[in-house]
Write a structure and sequence with these properties.
Blueprint lengths: L1 H29 L10 E2 L5 E2 L23 E12 L2 E14 L2 E14 L2 E21 L5 E13 L9 E13 L3 E13 L8 E11 L11 E15 L8 E13 L6 E11 L2 H4 L4 E10 L1
Length: 299
């Protein structure tokens, strides 16, 4: 029952986030004082809003959860180190994101290394290519409630190394919510399908994650050369849908901080550090604790 409760809890969170734009729009529509904001609407079916903070730097880059904000030009290098008993795992990810209008395309390259009692397995992981696009936005009259819903897809191309043998396809949807000038909540969920040989071939799973952030501005805490400090809390989960692990859920958490520094010429560095920990028994089999570091350059 523990695993089912974890899944239901996460499902409830994601469902509430997915419905937030609907509830917000409904409340705004039924308010007797609601003004006509049609001049702010644009895009297909007037579903987007010029007042939205999507793509304006309001949403911090997550660690464990997939990024869902619009990124114009961004390069990123992450390293995650985890321990589970005698097993040590390291993953280094290099990523480039480029915006074309409201569409963000991305490319990722991974290096993975696992060691246990002197035995080491390492190699280049899948080359991940992805794209995302917003399809609905709602901003309240006073701008306090600002939400963007969108969809994306990611394809993992195997390089046939010791850690990369299967093609992965993940269609996904996301919701980026800003409350006031400080609180952000990003949610994403996707359906992962693996194609190829071995015991992982044909495996399907449901992936999901949420990222809660609070932006501390210089008006609240002034530190030279720092534009924003964003404490973060993340949950990242995966539920197997077939094979022998069907119904099993692994849920991992992270508590961390991202620091956005002043620009150097056209480049803005963003530093990140987080502590990784398991949130249920299944996750504890893979990680007892870990450290995640992230260096982002927006240019």
């Amino acid at each position: 029952m523990k695993l089912k409760n974890d899944s239901v809890g996460i499902l409830g969170i994601l469902s509430a986030l997915a419905l937030a734009p609907v509830f917000g729009a409904h409340a705004q529509t039924n308010s007797p004082a609601a003004p006509d904001d049609s001049s702010n609407r644009y895009g297909l079916f007037n579903a987007l809003d010029h007042r939205s903070s999507y793509g304006q730097g309001a949403f911090p880059e997550p660690f464990l959860v997939d990024d869902s904000d619009l990124e114009d030009n961004e390069a990123r290098l992450d390293w995650t180190h985890t321990k589970a008993g005698s097993v040590t795992d390291d993953e280094v990810t290099a990523e480039i994101e480029k915006g074309f209008g409201l569409m963000t395309v991305e490319a990722e390259l991974h290096y993975e290394r696992a060691s246990e009692a002197g035995d080491v397995v390492d190699g280049i992981g899948n080359i991940d290519l992805g794209a995302r696009y917003p399809f609905y936005q709602f901003v309240s009259e006073n701008g306090f409630f600002d939400t963007t819903a969108g969809a994306g897809v990611e394809v993992g191309i195997p390089v046939h190394s010791s850690v990369s043998k299967n093609t992965e396809l993940v269609p996904k949807i996301f919701n980026d919510l800003r409350l006031g000038q400080h609180v952000t909540l990003q949610a994403i969920t996707g359906y992962s399908m693996l194609f190829g040989p071995g015991e992982d071939g044909g495996a399907h799973s449901w992936e999901y994650g949420v990222d809660l952030g609070y932006s501390i501005t210089p008006e609240q805490l002034h530190i030279p050369h720092v534009q924003r400090i964003i404490p973060l809390f993340e949950m990242s989960g995966e539920t197997a849908l077939n094979h022998g692990d069907s119904g099993q859920t692994s849920l991992t958490g992270l508590a961390g901080v991202r620091v956005n520094l002043d620009t150097i010429g056209r480049i803005q560095p963003r530093l990140g550090l987080g502590f990784v920990f398991p949130m249920n028994n299944n996750a504890r089999q893979d990680v007892h604790w870990g450290i995640a570091t992230s260096l982002v350059f927006e240019y």
